[in-house]
Amino acid sequence: MTVESQELRFRTHREGEILDITDKTQTVIESSRMRNGVAVLFVPGSTGAITTIEYEPGLLADLTVALERLAPKDASYEHEKRWHDGNGHSHIRASIIGPDLSVPFRDKKLTLGTWQQIVFLELDVRPRDRTVIVQLVGE
């Protein structure tokens, strides 16, 4: 069994930005020595998240609305009372979605469904320089 790691680096521009990183992840797999295995994606930090979605405008809007219902910006958060940084809701949203995702790959191709893409969600209240660690485990 082999393990290889690479990093995806990018800058986000606003809270609520949802970036399709499927192609970048596929490129990592294609550049590796492995044919079959699992790609594990991980976001260091507590206000970014990774998931899959059908990357189309309706669902992107729906996801944004759903997150506002689950963790409204204008709700009271203990984090805000302590740090006064305006991102208590960001931390809650990131915790709900999660910082990682595992996707199998076979014959150097991600095994995603037809309409399924890997997305990074910027949940912080300001632009950020972000890193997604992509670790491949396989053969």
Structure description:
This protein has 139 residues and is of the alpha+beta class. It has a single domain (2-138), classed as Jelly Rolls (Sandwich), CATH 2.60.120. The chain contains four helices and eight strands. It has helices spanning 22-31, 57-70, 78-83, 88-97; strands at 2-11, 18-20, 37-42, 48-53, 100-106, 109-110, 117-122, 129-138. It has a five-stranded antiparallel beta sheet, with helices on one face. The chain has a three-stranded antiparallel beta sheet with strand order 2-7-4, with helices on both faces. A hairpin with a 2-residue loop joins strand 5 and strand 6 (109-110). The radius of gyration is 16 Å and the shape is elongated. The model has no long low-confidence stretch (mean pLDDT 97).
Please describe the topology of this protein.
Elements: E1 2-11, E2 18-20, H1 22-31, E3 37-42, E4 48-53, H2 57-70, H3 78-83, H4 88-97, E5 100-106, E6 109-110, E7 117-122, E8 129-138
Antiparallel strand pairs: 1-8, 2-7, 3-5, 3-8, 4-7, 5-6
Determine the strand fraction and express it as a percent band.
35-45%
Q: Describe the main β-sheet briefly.
A: 5 strands, antiparallel
Helix content: 25-40%
Q: Secondary-structure element order, as H and E?
A: EEHEEHHHEEEE
**Classification by helices and strands:** alpha+beta
Question: How many helical elements?
Answer: 4
